[in-house]
Amino acid sequence: MPADAESAPTSAAREHLEALLAAEMLKARNEMRVIRGMWLFSGLALVIAILLWTLAGGREQFITRDSGYDATVLLPGWLALAGLLAAGTATVLFMIRLMRATLGNIEERPARK
After folding, report:
1. What does pTM read for this prediction?
2. Which helix H or strand E contains 34, and what residues bound it?
3. Which of 31, 41, 33 is nearest to 96 (CA)?
């Protein structure tokens, strides 16, 4: 009987730990999906900004004009800014996700033993 009394809390604790790990894995998967989407948006925005800047005449207008730029200069600028902000945000979120996973592994190591 004592062996059953000791194994019951251990199995309940193990089931609780497995439920917490499953919830954390689902949360991590969703967070990484958002981060990948932000990196994809960043890359697309920067590529479109470069193409508009070089092929649509934004660079030429920027060089030849003193002030009062129209959409050929402003749109690539705003797209580039949005891409850089998205890349920075995705990087910060990724680092937070990485630190949370590392701390979770450190915390769970003794529980797994």
Report:
1. 0.73
2. helix 2-55
3. 31
